Amino acid sequence: MQDAQALLSSVFGFSAFRPGQAEIVEAVASGRNVLAIMPTGGGKSLCFQLPALMRAGVTVVISPLIALMRDQVRGLHEAGVVAGALTSGNTAEETDAVWAALDDGSLKLLYIAPERLASSGTERMLRRAGVSLIAVDEAHCVSQWGHDFRPDYLRIGELRRGLDVPLAAFTATADAETREEIVARLFDGQQPETFLRGFDRPNLALAFEVKQNPRAQILSYAAARKGQSGIVYCGTRAKTETLATALREAGHSACHYHGGMEAEERRIVEGRFATEDGLIVVATIAFGMGVDKPDIRWVAHADLPKSIEGYYQEIGRAGRDGAPADTMTLFGPDDIRFRRAQIDEGLAPPERKAADHARLNALLGLAEALGCRRQVLLGYFGEAAAPCGNCDLCQTPPETFDATTPVRKALSAILRTGESFGAGHLIDILTGDVTDKVRERGHDALPTFGVGTEFDKRGWQAVFRQMAAHDLVRPDPARHGALRMTDAARPILRGEAGITLRQDTIKAAPRRPQVKMLVSEEDAPLLSALKAKRRALAEAARVPAYVIFTDRTLIEMAETRPMDLDQMARITGVGAAKLERYGAQFLAVITGERPDDLHPARRKLAGRDAGSLYDRLLAVQADLARGDDGTGKHVTCSSSQLAKLAATRPADLSGIVRLLGDRRAERFGDAFLAVLRAAG
Fold first, then answer.
1. CATH architecture of residue range(s) 204-395
2. Residues whose CB is less than 8 angstroms from the CB of residue 36 and which lie 6 or more positions away in sequence, other chains included
3. 509: confidence class by pLDDT, cuts 50, 70, 90
4. Contact 269, 242 (CB under 8 A)
5. How far is CA 50 from CA 43, 44, 91, 97, 452, in A?
6. H or E segment at 309?
7. What is the pTM of this model?
8. What is the CATH number of domain 4-196?
């Protein structure tokens, strides 16, 4: 079995595994059944791609979306890996190439959609192809309660039994209930080796803002990130279209995407997003699971997501390359009412609705957090964390106040009006505003009338919003959204508990966001030049720009400025195949001149200690090519012989004789041995 670390470096261009990857790769490569729950952007695909190269035979990857499969196959081709997909989107030439690679035994990864499992001939084809491992991407699609449920995923367990091979299942979103369903349906209830990896994405900056002028807030946020790829999630299809238009009018490259569009229209947007630098897609959550673009620099929510899991999955589409990325979520009382009504009016059984309210409560708790947002988010997933220093609340700690008295006033107003009114009418009562509605119902005679003069209407709206976020009150769908008190509010009303709320969201002043730079001002021109070279190469090859190199790789090039191919090979994401294909062209952008060509044998050693050792051996050979006195017969070793010496480092003369033969060993043996020993 090939060495995982060596393949990680030579094929994928990474010097080290991300946390948790090494153990998963070892378990999958060893042929054990595996369930891995890893954060979005945590490097799941590497955990089955690398074992596929380590193992004999073909790894079949079952993936839910054609766009996702095509992206991964393109990336593997660029890394020098023989991979293919059998999809309805293939050209005849692509399909022929897959069958040819299967026939000659060179194919290592075969991607198929779950729907192909419905064909009776698929299992026979996979058995004939020599499949030795099944990898299941987005394994949560097997859950019948999930919004991504795909019925054909239920056939995977039968395929595993039929082929009698190990199965590795991967997902980023699997609570305990979903994990149990995955084990039951994919592994016949036999517990696989399970890896639950940390949910932290430290490169993502987290922020929330209360809605004031949502369109202006989104436009301002996008303006600070001009030219960077981003996604804006909206709660309605109509809003995606109007907001995309507003962004275009503000000078951005932007388009909309939602489930009501024709399939061809959606494919065009997906294609543009994959290939264009700096495009903003304004979308509903229909634009989701197939998004595997690693250099999305920001994700904004124009409306509150459905749940904390949905929020985590959606922000997780930013910064998959590991470079810094920003997230911002807008929310307001209308969002909270809308999401509560969605749950209450749905067709799910009562226990499911209760669970959905709990998930929404967790997200609202994150929105109204008093301390580090990352601590709150990771706490929901059962992880402890120190303050991150990378969220809005760490950078600008919130103002808070003891809100026990105003909250008790609000709760009293709700009870004294029979839990029959919404926040607007209740605020009129608290502020002493004698409206027609207040007068007609005699509410100006209530003990709570006019007792809330400490806040204006906007201040009370913030209090009611935070009360809803803390699940002290909920709108009653049976009474046109009238607020009713929950059990959680009763201890506060009775004086048995207190509550702290945020003052800053009551008196928030609009902020002008600073322009976000990916690199320092000094390195920005070089990064732009590197991106232009990447764009030109991507257009020529008709592949997405990130398939050439990700933003993270270009940022590292701009900051470290490699001066030769050895230094270039040490940049994250520059594997052997990409170094050979693109290394010299990007070096020319950095240094202003094309580097000298290296012999292929030397180029394979680029970035490794063996590379500099090869150079020293070559220098010694040049000195001794005509003997010690320069008058002997000209003798040299081939580049491949020197490369083998540098890579294997024989410890004595007999080892050198085996590689070079007697004649060359006699001329160079002692000198080469001295170089090898000096190198340790």
1. 3-Layer(aba) Sandwich (3.40)
2. 24, 44, 47, 168, 169, 170, 171, 194, 195, 197
3. very low
4. no
5. 11, 10, 27, 22, 63
6. helix 308-315
7. 0.76
8. 3.40.50.300
